[in-house]
Design goal:
Layout (H helix, E strand, L loop, with lengths): L1 H41 L5 H5 L7 E4 L5 E5 L3 E2 L9 H11 L11 H14 L9 H9 L9 H17 L2 H11 L1 E3 L2 E2 L1 H9 L8 H10 L12 H17 L5 H7 L17 H18 L9 E4 L3 H28 L1 H8 L6 H9 L9 H4 L1 E9 L4 E6 L13 H4 L9 H10 L7 E3 L5 E2 L5 E2 L11 E3 H6 L3 H11 L2 H10 L21 H12 L3 E3 L4 E5 L5 E4 L4 E3 L3 H17 L4 H4 L8 E6 L5 E7 L4 E8 L12 H19 L1 E4 L2 E4 L12 E7 L12 E7 L22
Parallel strand pairs: 1-6, 3-5
Antiparallel strand pairs: 1-2, 4-5, 6-14, 7-8, 7-19, 9-12, 10-11, 13-16, 14-15, 17-18, 18-19, 20-21, 22-23
């Protein structure tokens, strides 16, 4: 019996050793397997070097010359701020709700992890989470971790969070987290969220607002104060209560704040300021982003532009008022003659009575009819010396009508009479003078080999011999056409148009005299800028520099200027154009809009009145206004000339700009001087001439003063008034 007991004891001892050994081997195998599994998981996770290079994507900002943010470009709206700018109340709320032991653990809270495992096993679910702030940051930083609620994801988070803790300090981790976490409505980071929900900088947040943001973190869509204010309020109060229990706020402070209503912010459509200009900028940036190795929507760029917000506002105000008035004129004309309305919309097959009702009630014009019924327009303000685009409107400003077609840069429109300065310039440079006379009588213009045209003056008038100055002042079509037929060649005009920056196809035909070839509003305005700038062409410029998120300059854009015309010739042309404003078709600028500064310009109206223009300039500004229909077959109205449809917008714009007194250019303030005038060119002389013969005046002539090129001034004395009795010769 003792031997048998001894044998049993040995067998039992051996069995226990075998169990222990097997258990040890099993655990060792599990440990080794776990290590291998963790190694496999860690192979596609970020390295320490990658963690150190982490920079969350940020909003790129387009700034006006006077420092206003006029547009933001982003995929995820995010502004990165320093931890010192984030209120203490928000940081305390984060710790209270998301990670109470943040400053004690090394990236993983094993206590929370154990609790989560027990709760999830008991409920047979994954209801309980245990992620620390560091683990949440790991998930936010890298898509490779995944967002599915799996244990594999948790292991990846654990590994990455430990690496993060080895890479960053606790303060840096909190800063990265608060700048990368999602707050709903497309916003990432506390700064973007503060702007989104409260319209203020993060540093200005109050305690209750901080609590609202922290309350959003578990489920931004569910607790959004925009869509679910009741839930947001309950969630805010929960955050405040937990902060009180954790000792972050006192009882009296809690009682005071918990009774507050949710803050209210007006949420507006994100059109931004100068939407046509900012879209123009965005498209320009997309042309060079690969060359500069930048991402417009993620890199947090700062794009400095030439636009001045005050000039833009003056342009928009005048433009909107002008569009309202011009639309009313068109509506009235259509309603008084329904046959015109029917002709305009006929091919659309839109019901005539419905269209009439829309116009009568001034209702929103449907998209199908906008090309035919919606008056459109464009406006450009340029600094002629630098080429800086100071203001831009590319179409109707109303939200319902605003589109992505920028008429100031993309619409090819017939310029009509605003092209005439190119005609007269060519005549001047080929030796003709302001006093050259042509017959103001009807004639035939050959448009092409099979089509001929009998042009008329806009008012149907005719006359006898008329000077070039008078022809331009009164915008006489017959004189302009005779200049082309009798004095110069169309191809010379085309060359001047190219030299002045026009890139559209200008046809070298006699009808060039009346501006039948299309131009872009921006380019014709820049061409007038050459006349304002003494013959020097300044390439239109919209961007001055691009900076990265740290303020380093990536690229700087400098003005591109070149002399394209003799200063003396330009001086004479400009003086002729001043006559248009002082006593010609642009005279309303003086008597109606009370703009007294030295200025020059030109009205323009196409034959069908589908296009109305006024382009003008001072020594410091050039402004181009176009008004028309997107469908050029539709007229603006029988009396809608450039002087009535476009000049009012120009007049109100330039008057209000000069009333403002200044604009910003490359960080410097440019003061507008209403008394500044152009200095007479050294190549120009003023001569006293006979006002009848335009020869050098004798002491017996009725006299006037005129300017000429030095080499082209009158040299012959007037023969008609050679004696005191000359005036009686014809009697």
């Amino acid at each position: 019996m003792p031997e048998q007991n001894s044998g049993n004891q040995k067998f039992q001892a051996a069995s226990w050793w075998k169990v222990l050994l097997n258990t040890f081997l099993f655990l060792l195998a599990c440990f080794i397997g776990g290590i291998i599994y963790l190694f496999i998981l860690s192979r596609d996770l970020p390295s320490i070097a990658e963690l150190q290079r982490f920079n969350p994507e940020q909003v790129s900002k387009i700034l006006s010359a006077d420092g206003i943010v006029i547009k933001e470009l982003y995929i995820h709206k995010r502004d990165v701020v320093n931890i010192s700018q984030i209120p203490r109340s928000l940081r305390h709320g984060l710790l209270a709700m998301e990670d109470r032991n943040f400053f004690e653990h090394s990236g993983v809270s094993f206590q929370s992890l154990a609790r989560a495992v027990i709760v999830n096993m008991m409920t047979l679910s994954r209801r309980q989470g245990a992620s620390t702030i560091t683990q949440q940051l790991a998930r936010n930083m890298y898509n490779t971790i995944g967002f599915e609620k799996t244990y594999t994801r948790k292991l990846k988070e654990l590994i990455t969070s430990i690496n993060i803790e080895q890479t960053y300090t606790k303060t840096q981790i909190m800063e990265l987290y608060l700048n990368s976490v999602y707050f709903g409505h497309g916003t990432y980071g506390v700064q973007a969220a503060s702007n989104q929900y409260f319209g203020k900088d993060i540093s200005d947040l109050q305690l209750d607002e901080s609590a609202i943001l922290i309350g959003l973190l578990p489920a931004p869509a569910r607790y959004s104060p925009i869509r679910h204010p009741d839930r947001a309020l309950v969630r805010r109060n929960l955050v405040l209560r937990v902060m009180k229990e954790q000792g972050y706020i006192e009882e009296d402070k809690y009682q005071l704040v918990v009774k507050k209503d949710l803050p209210v912010k007006q949420f507006e459509k994100d059109g931004g300021m100068a939407p046509y200009f900012t879209e123009f900028i965005r498209r320009q940036l997309e042309k060079i982003d690969e060359e500069l190795d930048i991402n417009l929507y993620k890199d947090g760029l700062v794009v400095h532009t030439t636009l001045d917000s005050r000039i833009q506002l003056a342009l928009e105000d005048a433009f909107n008022a002008g569009m309202k008035k011009n639309q009313a004129v068109l509506n009235k004309e259509f309603l008084q003659d329904l046959s015109k309305l029917e002709d305009a919309i006929g091919f659309t097959r839109f019901d005539l009575d419905s269209a009439r009702f829309i116009l009568e009630s001034n209702d929103t014009i449907p998209a199908l009819l906008r090309n035919q019924l919606l008056v459109q327009g464009a406006g450009i303000v340029i600094d002629p010396t630098q080429g800086h685009i100071l203001g831009m409107v590319g179409g109707r400003q109303e939200d319902i009508y605003r589109d992505h077609f920028n008429r100031s840069t993309q619409a090819k429109r017939q310029p009509g009479s605003v092209f005439k300065p190119m005609i007269y310039l060519t005549a001047l440079e080929q030796g003709h003078s302001t006093t050259t006379e042509l017959l103001n009588q009807p004639l035939i213009v050959f448009i092409d080999d099979t089509t001929q045209w009998n042009p008329q003056n806009h008012d149907g008038s005719t006359g006898l011999l008329t000077t070039l100055r008078e022809g331009l002042r009164r915008s006489l079509n017959l004189i302009s056409v005779r200049v082309v037929q009798e004095l110069i060649e169309p191809k010379a005009i085309v060359q001047n148009a190219k030299d002045f920056g026009m890139t559209t196809y200008i046809r070298a035909v006699d009808a060039i005299a009346l501006g039948v070839s299309e131009v872009y509003p921006l380019e014709i305005t820049a061409a007038y800028g050459v006349i304002a700038n003494n013959g020097i062409y300044a390439q239109p410029l919209a961007i001055t520099r691009i900076e990265d998120r740290h303020g380093r300059i990536i690229k700087e854009f400098l003005p591109e200027n070149k002399e394209v015309q003799d200063e003396a010739t330009i001086y004479i042309l400009r003086d002729m154009m001043k006559s248009v404003v002082d006593a010609g078709t642009g005279g309303a600028l003086r008597w109606k809009y009370k703009f007294r500064a030295p200025a020059a310009g030109k009205t323009g109206t196409t034959n069908s009145k589908a296009d109305a223009w006024f382009v003008g300039f001072t020594p410091q500004l050039a402004i181009g206004i176009w008004v028309g229909m997107d469908d050029p077959a539709v007229s603006l109205g029988e009396k809608q000339f450039g002087s009535s449809a476009a000049l009012p917008i120009f007049g109100n714009t330039i008057r209000n700009i000069y009333d403002g007194g200044e604009f910003q250019s490359r960080g410097e303030t440019v003061l507008l001087n209403a008394k500044a005038d152009w200095l007479m060119s050294q190549g120009v002389v003023e001569v006293e001439i006979c006002e009848e013969t335009y020869e050098k005046a004798t002491r017996f002539c009725p006299t006037m003063k005129e300017i000429f090129l030095k080499n082209n001034r009158p040299r012959q004395q007037c023969q008609k008034h050679s004696s005191p009795f000359s005036r009686f010769k014809d009697k």
